[in-house]
Amino acid sequence: MRILSPDSVRYAGGAGPGPGEGEHRVPAKNRWSRVVLPFDGLVPEAWCHLAFRLAWDADEAAGAALDFALAGIDVLSEDGSSLDFEHVPGLDRTLLDPHGVWIAGPAYLPAEAQGARAGLVQFAFRVPAPASRVTVTIRSWRNTRAFCVSEATLRQGAAEPPAPTQIPRARHRLGPEPLWIDHALVPGCGLVLRGQLYTPEPGSHAALARIVYRDRAGAELPPPYPGTISVPALGALIDLSAHQQARRFTLELQPPAGAARVAVGFATWEADGPEAELLAAPEVALDERMRLESLCADDLLDATDFLARLAERLSLPGAALAGWCPQPDAVAAFAPVLARARALQRGEGHRAAGLDRVLRLGAGPAWTLPDAPDWREDPFRSVPWRLEYQSLGWLGAMAEAPGGATGALALALSWSRANPWGAPADGLALHPSALSARTETFVRLLARAGRPGGPASLTLTGEAVRHGFALAEIVGQNTFGRSIHQVQAAATLRLVALALPLLPLSAHWLSLARAALGTGIAPLLDEEGRFADPSLHQRLELLTLLRALGLALDPAEAGEAALKARLERAVAAGLPRVSGMLDPGGRLPPFGDTPHGEDAAGWIGRLGTGANLVLTAERWSGQARPSRERPSQPRAETEAPSGRVDPAAGMIALRNDAPGRGWGHFACTFASQGQGPGHRDAGSFTYACEGVRWIVEAGGSSLIEAGAARHHLLSEAGHNVAVPDQRPAGSGPARYLGAERLTGATLHRLATGVHGPDYVHRRLFLVLDDLSGLAVIDRFAVADRPVAFEGAVHLSPEILVALAGPRRAMAQAGRARLSLSPVTLAGRAAGLTIQNGCNAHPGALRGFVSAPKGGLQPTSVLRYAFAGTGTVCGGLALAADADADRRLTALLEGIAPVV
Predict the structure, then answer these.
(1) Residue 666 to residue 491: CA distance in whole angstroms
(2) At what angle do helices 600-610 and 536-552 cross, to 10 degrees?
(3) Can you say whether the dihedral through the CA atoms of 557, 506, 523, 572 is positive or negative?
(4) What are the CA-CA distances from residue 703 to residues 16, 41, 130, 555, 680 (Å)?
(5) How far out from the chain centre does Cα 64 lie?
(6) What band does 115 get if pLDDT is binned at 50, 70 and 90?
(7) What percent of the chain has pLDDT over 90?
(8) Which residues in 207-234 are b (16+ Cβ under 10 Å) and which e?
(9) Residue 629: pLDDT over 60
(10) CA separation for the pair 692, 815 (Å, rounded)
(11) Confidence check: pLDDT of 895 > 90
(12) Residues 245 and 78: beta-carbon distance below 8 Å
């Protein structure tokens, strides 16, 4: 492990040195006030753990803000030039800095920090190759008083390959054979490509971009072309020089007359020349006058006026508008992707709205739509409800109900009048998920809008077009890369382009959407079935969207046939990795962000049927095979429980539902922690036996968007994990080390690095074959110094639990009982406590889980602690009866010498 300090410090926006040595004062000037801390000599492909002390003013009023301050990260090459990576594991994309982490307010720091008004802030990220430097910018954001930053250090371990759960980062290395990108053009409009080139050896001829224009028949137009040079054997090209290791470039292409498509090929000049790499696929946009912001300017245009403005920019007469409106029968032939995904998720029995104007959206209760909605309605103070309401997805079901088309059209036109672009009635209407779904709804309603060019048809076409502009900019700039929102936007843009074939932008939008779908799905789900998102619910939503998209793709189109085949392979590989986590009661473990009340088993059944997959219980389960045998232990005569041990999915799920005893289920997550700052749940688990769900996750209900409740659900305090020395978990690797068969049980081993390179952490699960008991054991090893850790397990709110002594707790649910006993293998036991509904301050919430209708509900959390020097090892044994307790004790005595 290496410990680095900042090379030098820079200030801006009124920031400057603090009162003490090594302190940096950041005043409350919002965003521009900042201290910049450079770190040099980093090892690529290794995890960094950044820590600093934060001190705040006694009169600070924003201490409970989750975005109190912003830590921005700029990843640099060896010569200090910025590298525009699409994704840095452990970090989010931000606006002012390429990547970053929101710093929660001081109210979320440990209790001992409150009196001292100073505490430790830390987070982690992985440095992508070829970067070797970073600058960390601590910005003012919500703070109302100045704060001080001090003792900033960066600890870094050794470089290591990505965890098996991580999808490898695609790298675009260039050679003499061009990497071609093909796009359709808008008549009379230029095309702009923006990207970044990296080369370890800067030079005046680092790489080139070959340019080829073609007409509508596909014939190549001969050069010269505006803005290019011609070289024998290469044709028209643009030189991409690089005077630093990284260079951002902008290609402003001006197509010659008659050009309908352009192909841009990125390549090196020579086969043995300097290396070159595109850090990401270039962003694609139309020229400035065809951007949505330029088209709307400061005017609040209605849908029809927007079409008129567009025709003017395209130098077309106003009479062209009616020609852009599609024939209703032609629109009806196109399959809606997002609506079909919703049907797969919710089932045919789901009814969003009918002639009675009663809406049932999301998890909200029935609500009667006003006769004249103003589109600001928020009856349940629910962000998910508002998103679905503003999506207008429910209008599609209303329009398809007998006699419902007229009412659905009237409501769509009402929404359009109340929401001129740039002044939405509800700001959530611009959320990407609502934007995509609403666009699809407008296109679907065009099939029922009557005469093309009529008032309703013209308004709906105008809405589809201006929504299409927004989607095209999202897709072309990869605004929500590595997110389901990006796939939704691309799928919907494809539908708009197909439904409006006479619109001059349709061919460009179609090529943009197909290219984005071709490159944007692999980072979310590869053909081996690995997911980027650790949430089972989000994985299932992605599978559903991809299945619906695959059904909509046209295999007769060459570009879509290959994509359809890829989607089918990815869904077939990914679906068993989700369905295999189901417990016998039909629920998925609530790891990651998960709403309440989903019928996961029914959803998976519909998805499996739609995907032509036979998802029987046997297909869901894959036997957990041992990785090695312990010679000192006789082989068990019983088989391991059914289930899945899936290192690539980052999860374990074991089930037992033998006759004569209630069913049992054990699930654990070690999914990659590198997607971004999210749930700190590496190694967390759930447990059920005798049909009782004893150990639960606090959950990550999507009904909770902000505040102390959200912070609790994301933090390690809301999960069944262990924390050493009160050091919160960060992003980092988590790996499955293998399974070992013992007598009547299986031992599963995990390794995590979420607490930093100075802790060697192992988590073991000893699971009895009949799931009547299990033990969770943690081992923390450090340099020769004292070390302590505290573990926690959350029990279901309906469970009664009490301490039966200093070394045992008893839980009861009806006639079923569960004993919970600390086990010490190295070091000493340091306490056993129960907390329920503790709420001393925002950062000290303990004993809460997410409530079905939003917010938190109290429950019991059992906390057990151990301490030692150098190495400490201990855990908790859970047993449903005396026999299970006895067997666990014997097995733990056998494995203690080798843990």
Answers:
(1) 37
(2) 30
(3) negative
(4) 41, 43, 40, 39, 19
(5) 24
(6) confident
(7) 74
(8) bbbbbbbbeeeeeebebebeebeeeeee
(9) no
(10) 10
(11) no
(12) yes
Alpha carbon distance 354, 303 (integer Å) = 27
Which DSSP helix (H) or strand (E) runs through 686? strand 685-689
Is pLDDT of 635 > 80? no
The answer to whether the CB of 619 falls within 8 A of the CB of 640 is no
Which CB contacts under 8 angstroms, 24+ apart, belong to 889-892? 891/742, 891/743, 891/745, 891/766, 891/775, 892/766, 892/775, 892/777, 892/823, 892/825
Q: Is 11 strand, coil or helix?
A: strand
Closest residue by Cα to residue 668 from 689, 680, 686, 646: 686
Say how far apart CA 718 and CA 208 lie, in whole Å: 52
Distance CA 867, CA 286 (A): 62
> Which whole-number Å values give the CA distances from 273 to 202, 241, 245, 844, 888, in the listed order?
11, 13, 15, 58, 64
The answer to whether 680 touches 730, Cβ cutoff 8 Å, is yes
Q: Do residues 809 and 791 lie in contact, with contact meaning Cβ atoms separated by under 8 Å?
A: no
pTM, two decimal places:
0.93
Is the separation of the CB atoms in 723 and 790 below 8 Å? yes
DSSP classification of residue 482 = T
- pLDDT at position 164, please? 82
22: left (phi over 0), alpha (psi -120 to 50) or beta: left
Paired sense of beta strands 734-742 and 628-629, if any = parallel
280/507 Cα distance (integer angstroms)? 24
Q: How is residue 165 written in tokens? A: 């759960």
Q: Taking Cα atoms as reference points, which of 168, 111, 104, 99 lies closest to residue 136?
A: 99
Rg (CA), the chain: 29
Question: What distances in angstroms separate CA 320 from CA 312, 324, 453, 460, 510, one per listed residue?
Answer: 10, 7, 10, 16, 21
The pLDDT-based confidence of 614 (bands split at 50, 70, 90) is: very low
In this predicted model, what pLDDT tens digit does every residue of 252-309 receive, in sequence order?
A: 999 999 999 999 999 999 888 788 999 999 999 999 999 999 999 888 889 999 999 9
Ramachandran angles phi, psi of 461, nearest 5°: -65, -40
Q: Is 756 helix (H, G, I), strand (E, B) or coil?
A: coil
DSSP assignment of 575-588 equals HHHHHTT--TTS--
pLDDT, one tens digit per residue, over 9-64 is 999 999 999 998 889 999 998 889 999 999 999 999 999 999 999 999 999 999 99
- Continuous segment of H or E residues that includes residue 753: none
pLDDT band at residue 841 under the 50/70/90 scheme: confident
Q: Quick check: 728 pLDDT over 90?
A: no
CB 677 within 8 A of CB 823: no
